[in-house]
Amino acid sequence: MRQQIKVFLPRIFIYLLLIFVSLPIVIAYLWLFSSSISRELTFGVLPRSFTLDNWRFLWSEIKIGTKVFENIWPVTFNSILLAGSITVAEVIISLLAGFALSRMNFFGKDYIMKTAIILHAFPGVALLIALFYVLNFIGLLDKIIGVVMVKVALELPMATWMIKGFFDEFPWDIEWAAYIDGCTRFQAWYRIILPQIKPGIAAVAIFAFLAGWSEFIYSYTFLFSSENYTLAVFLKNLIGDFRFLDYGLLAATGLFYLIPVIVFFLISQKSLMKMTFGGMKG
Amino acid sequence: MQEQGLVVDKKKAKKNITENYRSFLTALPFIGPFLLLIILFYFTPVILTLIMSLTGMDFTLEWKFSGLENYIKLFHDQNVELVIINTIKYVVFTLVINVGFGFLLAIATGYFIKDENVGLLFQTIWMLPRMTPAVIYALLWLWFLDPTEVGMLNILSGKLFVLPPQNWILNHPMGVVIIANGMIGASLGMVVFSAAIKSIPIDYFQAASVDGASDWDIIRHVIIPFLKWPIMFMTIWQTLSLITSYEYILLLTDGGPLNKSEVWSLFSYHKAFSNYEFGYGAAISVVLVIIAIIIALIMLKLFGYEAMMNRGKIKV
């Protein structure tokens, strides 16, 4: 009996502790949801009445004094465009480079692989000032495509290494058979191998999309025309003006921005934990 | 004889060069786009940052070379001392939360909770802030710490301790920045460490419990020795991330009030994009870049290639 108490007491204590430390996170997201659909809250998080007024940004413009905010739909379109282009470019380029690094022997390969590792650890934000100059020089400042290129470049080392791992596991025999049947390297890559490593492509694509969708600092620094705003920049500006006036509006806008992330999260929660951190040894 | 050998070597060398060239050309369609982007947005900026730091470049983006003036200015800048102290505080305390609290979460969810689904539920809750776009995460904190009675922390402190509303961000900017960043970093530690705990052979736990070891003994003599390398890796990795990233600080306090939460990387950002002193900002970045390169090289030396690629695939 005593032995059992000795075992169970710490366990119960651990449970209570975990619930206690996790509660703020749960409360914060609960607040985001309830204040987006309610005008007043009880205890700070429980809705008292239902209203859709906080979602008015979806169908009408938001005004504060004489200042009128941009319509949300073009902004949303920009975010989709940004995240979508980043995904497509990152996946294609890393698929090409990963194939070369995994399957080909060429001069400088070892050097490129080493560099990719150092770059993976090397922070791109430290180069923000010079990137500003580069974008200005090639005429891509204040253009979404400029942010896309910067973001893809910074994410490439990691994506390429991930993809390389998937290529490494693909059996040589099948690839050889393709060459014997007269395939070129490009055809073997495109027709034979790519269809086989779809799970890897999906993984890289999802990460690229989420990274692009959440991207803030580059859009905030490199895009200044309001017609190029993304949801992150839009929300940041909204917070600046409405913080002490209308949390309902901010919560609703935040939730709107969060929807794709939540959907992805619910679908892939279990595999996400295993996929991202698989293959780790102590 | 010797001369002949030399001629052969030369021929061989020549052949090698053309072969190298040819092998590179066949790989070029595949590796080319990768190289182009890396050169354009990694190598060029590193070199440009170095050159820019020797100029008095402003918003006109003209190269006005001024030698080491920026570095001398940096040496005499009155804010620098405060910024360095802030940076050290920020990195050290956030690291303690990231690694220490991450370790506790991993032990709790990966060792104490035997039901895998419950453990996963808690881990998922802790992954939420990481998946959330930075702007929304910042919004949640701004509401939590709102200076009026609308803010959650003020509701709590008012109801529990009958305290008047406080302006938390104004009074404790560094604390806010550290806790907000720590909550995100802890989840990475949690997932990495709990995966490492799962990879410990089950025999060790069984052997320990046959010998009558308590949970505390198991943590001390089985889990911690096994987690030595992951813990070290996370510490260095997070140091690198913390020193160089400033997104959440920019969104939460913007370095204020009165530079009280300004850290080195954000200092460089502000000089460039708020004051338009691009040259000076670049000089501040150069210091950062040098430190980052040193840390990256240390990591490579300690952990080698493979380990670095297999761990920490999500950026902090």
Automatic annotation (TrEMBL), chain A:
<keyword id="KW-0813">Transport</keyword>
<dbReference type="GO" id="GO:0005886">
    <property type="term" value="C:plasma membrane"/>
</dbReference>
<feature type="transmembrane region" description="Helical">
    <location>
        <begin position="80"/>
        <end position="104"/>
    </location>
</feature>
<feature type="transmembrane region" description="Helical">
    <location>
        <begin position="144"/>
        <end position="163"/>
    </location>
</feature>
<dbReference type="Pfam" id="PF00528">
    <property type="entry name" value="BPD_transp_1"/>
</dbReference>
<protein>
    <submittedName>
        <fullName>Carbohydrate ABC transporter permease</fullName>
    </submittedName>
</protein>
<feature type="transmembrane region" description="Helical">
    <location>
        <begin position="12"/>
        <end position="32"/>
    </location>
</feature>
<keyword id="KW-0472">Membrane</keyword>
<feature type="transmembrane region" description="Helical">
    <location>
        <begin position="116"/>
        <end position="138"/>
    </location>
</feature>
<feature type="transmembrane region" description="Helical">
    <location>
        <begin position="244"/>
        <end position="267"/>
    </location>
</feature>
<dbReference type="InterPro" id="IPR050901">
    <property type="entry name" value="BP-dep_ABC_trans_perm"/>
</dbReference>
<feature type="transmembrane region" description="Helical">
    <location>
        <begin position="201"/>
        <end position="224"/>
    </location>
</feature>
<dbReference type="InterPro" id="IPR000515">
    <property type="entry name" value="MetI-like"/>
</dbReference>
<dbReference type="GO" id="GO:0015423">
    <property type="term" value="F:ABC-type maltose transporter activity"/>
</dbReference>
<keyword id="KW-1003">Cell membrane</keyword>
<comment type="similarity">
    <text>Belongs to the binding-protein-dependent transport system permease family. MalFG subfamily.</text>
</comment>
<feature type="domain" description="ABC transmembrane type-1">
    <location>
        <begin position="76"/>
        <end position="268"/>
    </location>
</feature>
<keyword id="KW-0762">Sugar transport</keyword>
<dbReference type="GO" id="GO:0042956">
    <property type="term" value="P:maltodextrin transmembrane transport"/>
</dbReference>
<keyword id="KW-1133">Transmembrane helix</keyword>
<dbReference type="InterPro" id="IPR035906">
    <property type="entry name" value="MetI-like_sf"/>
</dbReference>
<keyword id="KW-0812">Transmembrane</keyword>
